[in-house]
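Table S5 (text form). Sequence records supplied for joint modeling of the two-component complex.
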Amino acid sequence: MIEAHDLTKDYGDKRAVDHLSFTVKPGVVTGFLGPNGSGKSTTMRLILGLDAPTGGDVKVNGKHYREHKAPLHEVGALLEARSVHTGRSAYNHLLALAQTHGIGRKRVEELIDLVGLHEVARKRAGQFSLGMGQRLGIATALLGDPHTFLLDEPVNGLDPEGIHWIRNLLKALAAEGRAVFVSSHLMSEMAQTADHLIVIGRGRLIADTSVDEFVRRASGAVVLVRSPQATRLRDLLLGPGVTVTSDQPNVLEVAGVTSEKIGESAAANGIVLHELTTVQASLEEAFMELTRDDVEFKAAEAA
Amino acid sequence: MNSVAAPVIPRLEHTGRVTQARVVLSEWTKLRSVRSTLWSLGVAVLLTVGLPLLIATIRTTRAHPDRHGPSPLEIASAGVNISQLAIAVLGVLLITGEYSTGMIRATFTAVPTRLPVLWAKIGVYAVVSFVLMLPCVVIGFFGSQAILAHKNLGQISFSHPGVARTVIGGAVYLMLIGVFALALGAIVRSTAGGISAFAAIFFVIPPLLNILPSSWNNAIAPWIPDSAARAIFQLTHDAHSLSPAGGLAIFLAYIAAAVAVAAILLVRRDT
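The corresponding structure-token record, covering 574 residues in total, follows.
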């Protein structure tokens, strides 16, 4: 459980977090979204007591972070970038942190196995790939078996299998009744992981809503098409007011044409379809929509 | 459909709180688990033991040894003057290495009150450096004196008044230098800045004082950190230097001031 009230942080004359209030509840995954530089990492540092707020207040499990006598049992944190001495092995890194709470070597070894770092546990962390670094960060967060998790961009640098693993982990933690607060710039990732969203722009709260509600607020539908002749289909569909994007081969995301029209067009040209699905506007789009408003508002205000 | 099963997170039965003793154990683990520790302490050991032996050997191998060269005790403590740099660099690195790598955020997340971390770093490093340097200065002394005695070059006895204090004082000096450097590192939070600050205080300011009129120089020089600290392991003391106990007291006051500033900043500053 994380409760922020009117949280504000200035660095010099730049305001990084601006009167932010929100609650992260146990039992759900709460996504924390915002463009780069919107104050996500600053907010997380304020929650952990690493930075002191200029104004307002944030409590974790009922207390300020610094007041907890055994913080690793309260909050598990995966911090932005790396928070690991590059010259120390993963094992010794975890051990040193575990020892501050009297947590034993057995727990350290268990977690190294759990996150799949067994082979490299004795290597210097500076030689780790980004993905391995993230796995070590996850192990660090799990050390004290805490009630609340705070993860800053946990899927950064992970391979698809790792992303899948994290997604399942976060859901499993929430299903056990823990509070999970996870920031990401991958909006589509949040759609698959989070139940609730807190969206900020320029340090201000833009939305505090369920993921379903967030997507519903966004306009326009997209049709997902899967076809072995995707390239040909794209050429047929393209026209005024129609956008076609493709993230992977044989898959098209079409906006501006209904699924009926696409199906008819494909049939008329003898194109095989493997999938034809109308989907809600992507979270990315919904997010862009909301933050763009905020940016425009700010710009108009400044003028 | 999912190829990766939801991970089963092992439960932690026992839960404990943060104590100073646990933070000390954690800092001991940190100290022994990085290469810079092994390198710095290895160099310090090598220099503290090796230089007295080397200088004594060079003196004995010369056909006509110079009777007006360094005194036997100066030879014995020659290593301390150089190895202090390795001790100081490691002192700075123990804290700045955490800032430069981002480790400090993990450390302060585990120990959010922060001060136990500073006390533990100081305590662990003081004990480790003293326990390691004490045998080194003793071996350096007896080794160099044995070499000098072999050629009858006027060695000095350990039981001679002030000699034991001087030899052991060398290890005390190195330990305190390490603590002072650690505090400097905690204040400036950057490796380059910490080492520069140390070098300025111990290698740049002392010769600069010679520019001053000698009456000023004589009045100020004994009280600067370098002179006060050196009084701990110097055998002879003139009118313009502090007594060993006086030097120790003054240097401890400098350390206390540096540690106090470091502690205040550590608690107040954002990380």
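Note: Chain A touches chain B through 53 residues (CB under 8 Å).
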